TrEMBL record:
Transmembrane residue ranges: none
UniProt keyword annotation of Transport present: no
Keywords associated with the record: Hydrolase, Metal-binding
UniProt protein name: Phosphotriesterase like protein Php
Family indicated by similarity: Belongs to the metallo-dependent hydrolases superfamily. Phosphotriesterase family.
PANTHER family: PHOSPHOTRIESTERASE-RELATED, PHOSPHOTRIESTERASE-RELATED PROTEIN
InterPro entries for this protein: Metal_Hydrolase (IPR032466), Phosphotriesterase (IPR001559)
Biological source species: Streptomyces globisporus
Amino acid sequence: MDHPPPRILRTVTGELAAEAVRGPVLPHEHLVLDLDRQGDGAAVLDAEHHAASVTGELSSLRLRFGLSLIVELTCRGMGRDVRALARISRETGVPVVAATGWYYEPFHTPEVDTTDVDQLAAVLVREIEDGIGATGIRPGVLGEIGSHGDLPTPAEAKVLRAAGRAALATGLPLATHAQLGRGGLAQLDLLMAEGLPAERICIGHQDLLDDPGVHRGLAERGAYVAFDTVGKESYQSDATRLRLLSALVEAGHGDRALLSCDISRHGYLRGEGGQGYGHLFEDFLPAFRAAGADEDLIDLLTRRNPLRFLTGADVEEN
């Protein structure tokens, strides 16, 4: 029997066939970042000071749960360090996909103010085609492209449009940051107006928005709906997340949901007293199973959906 050609993922340590990813994927995480605007160092994952905690967690999750891929959505202006990502990937044995783009407006880098949409898109395409800086490491996703509020600001609309054009030009998928879950429909409208198909778009942080109608609306148009802050109880309870996810699945859109933890502060690391990258596997998914989810649905949500988002193609069931 003829088999289709492998779908290739672009990781920080080289190309990887999607078919080789047999275990779960975390599609929205941070391993190294710096979002510190208060001067207290809380919103930081420093490659030097926190690397042991990060690598220890990921190594354990690979052994215990078969963690097989991480999509690392730290982009321009967020403290991105792809050399550190490559080092972490090699040390843990977990492949990592790096990102490019711009976060929401307070974290924009200076060129956003002085450059038009086409020029910004060209910046992203160059990184995608030639690599980030002198590293030669090429991003495998655009994200997390940010906005806050029900409508993007003009600067945020500019970077969303630029990222949409770069995604269309390169074939990469695009993941957004919708602050507290708001503005996802406006993000999708803007990106689709640039010609990017909805199935190449993931709208972020929808588990922070208690509105099943919005989730259904995004999924019905073909976009992925990210429940990607699992375990961040100070923002939303996991009980609410479970209810929202169940509602989306029951509406027939289980193939549009993505699950992750969005570890974005060193205090979230398990070694520093937080819930850790493994909270999804250790706590949330057992609760989902107890609510009636079977293993095929778990595999769909944690492996097949993120791989389809990344490659644009289905992968076989385990």
